[in-house]
Sequence to fold (116 residues):
Amino acid sequence: MELLVASAIGILTAAGLYLVMRLRTFPVIMGISLLTYAVNVFLFASGRLKVGAPPILTDATNYTDPLPQALVLTAIVISFGMTAVVVMVALGAYLGSDDDHVDDPVDDTTKPEDAA
Fold:
């Protein structure tokens, strides 16, 4: 089970980093979402991967830590809000410039001799 979760975290991270490095707005937003999913799975897995174990301390040998589960719930809410903010900023940038490139255009109006 640990190998499956570790592979899922690695694949989500790799896909998220690939999408973040794109030059369009929508893939960057999707990449950030995949990275937050990878962090959420990592946080959840840090609480112990036990099937059918209660999230409270009833038996000292068989329990899962409830703190990472609470952290994941908080992270899901925060990432949802931040994704909504980023989508609105990206939509405003797209409507303002009619282009969804992430990088800024180079300004060729200044000459090297004018800068000195």
Observations:
- The radius of gyration is 21 Å.
